[in-house]
Amino acid sequence: MAGIEFVIVSPVGDVVPLASGVNDPGDFRLMTGVVGFGAPGVDVNARDSAGGGLIVRNFRVQARSFNLPVGIDAVDRFDMADKQRRLEAATHAQPGLPYPRLRATYATGRVLELPFYVTSGFEETYTETGERWTVFDLTATAPKPYWRDTETRDFAITPPLEGVPLLTNLATIPLTAGAPSGELTVTNPGDVAVPLEWEAVGPFTRAEITVGGDRFVIGALTSAEAVIIRASQAGGFTVQDGSGGDAYSKIGPAPRFPSMPAGVRQVRATVTGQASGSRITGRFRPAYRSVF
What we know:
six-stranded antiparallel beta sheet, 5% helix, five-stranded antiparallel beta sheet, 2 domains, mainly beta, Elongation Factor Tu (Ef-tu), domain 3
């Protein structure tokens, strides 16, 4: 694809560059005929309506399936075997390790990643393929179908006496002893809603965070005490302290941890009892349906 550089990052961190331009040098080449880099499919749960038509109950995005035709250029049969094994290792999931990632780097500097694993395409042995040039038409699945930005967007809530500059597209939230509430305008440049993760560091006596209709409360934290809220791979969120221990007891009843929808959203915070060193940081990684 013109204007985008692709690499495969293996579960152990080996980076396999994929040349794509006609004159680009490289032993591994992304061939024409890639299918499945567009928007993922959607499953819709609907039933017939008594008044005609359908009533949509809910929908969910499907896992992404795509094909990845990769050519290998080798000097002889043994070199071909070594490079085939390297590509196999880079594209297969391994227990206890992160998924392989397909990384797309734009000329603008934006970098997107798609975790995936190969399900077929290596069935031929090297005796059936070319000794110096061959193409493997790989079939792959991305369990999480969106392309995620590698850059994390952060926004901070900090007392004025120890202000931390925000990103250029974020407005400063006013927090003072007399008016410990304020709103922060946050922009998600991606296509879809993504999990919001939080890190809170004391001292403060109470913090209430609201995004849209979702809210949660963090109870009192002493100086330098931390609570970290992260999205889990299985869905939902984990709440831990600074050493990795469970800290769910610090969260108020019936929390609804918000996501960050695409576009502009107001984040409202009410923090009481804050002092020097206290802060609350939100962060998210934008996600996109397609690469072009």
